[in-house]
Amino acid sequence: MSLPHDWVLTASLVTGAYLIGSIPFAVVISKLFGLADPRSYGSGNPGATNVLRSGNKAAALLTLIGDAAKGWFAVWLAAGWVHEPITLACVTLAVFLGHLFPLFLGFKGGKGVATAFGVLLAIQPIMALLTAIAWIATLVIFRFSSLAAIVSAVLAPVIYVVAGQYIWQATLPMSLAISVMGALLLYRHRANITRLLQGTEPRVGSKKDAK
User: What is the pTM of this model?
Assistant: First the structure.
């Protein structure tokens, strides 16, 4: 494992990635659309799913795109400057942690599903596609948004490592970064996991979910 040769550049990229990840698109877009702060209703989560509970699909879609785009942009930008696996892995975690613990929202952010997808898209588009297919398939079959996220979080590092032996060259730092990201996604969905086990998790489209 090669260490970054330019610590100033590395620190700048990691810090920049964290700040990019901290941009609260759910809150910003809700304000632009004249909607209530997404932290004040539903799950209280500043993310696209909760913005959708406002009934404004356009705002929810833009939030989804914004959260995914910032994950993609931070990794893409770093990849244009450096090629050390450990630096790119640190940037990957930084932008994701920025969304989970944003500086601009008192370190209380979203669950990170869309941002994680954007990160995967920047790392390997094929991996992002396979993970998205798993997410969609789980959602269509079981109609649990949380379960789809959980399944994707578990499969993403597996896909990266396994397919990395045939389609791309997987690196240890990025394997660890994606695994940590998956573990954090599971942690952020711990309440959902409890409800799934108890049979009280609302399905997508249900009246309870709408509330």
Answer: 0.93
